[in-house]
Design goal:
This protein is mainly α. It has one domain. It contains 11 helices and no strands. Helix 2 packs antiparallel against helix 4 and helix 3 packs antiparallel against helix 10. The chain is globular, with a radius of gyration of 21 Å.
């Protein structure tokens, strides 16, 4: 059994002990249920709430099944889901740094690259599985309440969205390496990721360099089956930024004196 496998087993054990393997899928499944139900029953809810002047009516645009699924990404996973990812991963590195576990691990002939990759892969598998279950729940309710959408388009769009999630996770881990307090890590991570999301609203050609634009690409694939311009450039830039963040984190930790146990 090599060192990397042992590190992955440690991440799995930590996730079980902290019940992340239980509550994280439940949260994403709740987010997945929320969008199709709220979209379908909102007119009835507004009608039942009353309070409108006599003769006045609210006409809501009808959404297609693909638009409901796209809204699950943009309105649920890109907002609450983003915060959940930050909350899950914000202590991934800082806890090991502060309690001396990282220094102890590195004395066992483990490299920083192995350590960081085990963190990234462990959390990526956990978040990817939870996101898959959450979106699968959204698909089920959308198919039931509306109509079926091409499974190939759903799979392709979700695959692109996973890259954006991997970038979000990498940002949180990198900030966790640079800072030593979890509240600061959470605040800075949310600020950076929300800033990237807000920038996508501005439009413009420079969006191809913004990893958050992958969310728009995923929406376009699900709703129309087509990608937006410069699709492969955005993916390439996102992957390169992930590699750069890991390189930055490795370089910083290699020069930092770590507390021992």
């Amino acid at each position: 059994m090599n060192r990397f496998t042992v590190l992955l087993q440690k991440e799995w054990l930590d996730a079980k002990r902290s019940y992340k393997l239980l509550w994280l899928p439940v949260v994403f499944m709740f987010l997945g249920i929320l969008q199709p139900l709220s979209s379908f029953y909102l007119p009835e809810i507004l009608k039942g709430a009353g309070g409108l002047p006599e003769g006045m009516a609210i006409t809501l645009p009808e959404q297609t099944a693909s638009e409901v699924l796209a809204s699950a990404l943009t309105d649920q996973f890109d907002q609450m889901g983003l915060i959940v990812i930050v909350m899950v991963a914000m202590g991934a590195i800082v806890s090991d740094k502060n309690n001396g576990m990282l220094a102890f691990i590195l004395t066992r002939n483990t490299t920083l690259v192995e350590y960081l990759l085990s963190k990234l892969l462990g959390y990526a598998v956990m978040i990817t599985g939870s996101l898959f279950l959450g979106f699968l729940t959204a698909v089920f309710y959308t198919f039931y309440l509306y109509q079926a959408v091409s499974v190939a388009r759903i799979a392709a769009g979700l695959g692109v969205y996973f890259i954006w999630c991997l970038f979000m996770l990498t940002i949180v881990i990198t900030i966790g390496v640079l800072l030593s307090r979890t509240p600061a890590i959470a605040l800075l991570s949310v600020f950076v990721l929300m800033f990237l999301k807000i920038v996508t609203l501005l439009g413009g050609g420079f969006q191809v360099l913004n990893p958050a634009h992958l969310s728009n690409q995923a929406v376009s694939i699900i709703t129309s089956g087509n990608v937006l311009p410069h699709f492969f450039i955005t993916i390439t830039v996102s992957v390169l930024l992930i590699v750069f963040c890991l390189f930055l984190a490795t370089s910083y930790l290699s020069r930092k004196e770590l507390p021992s146990m």
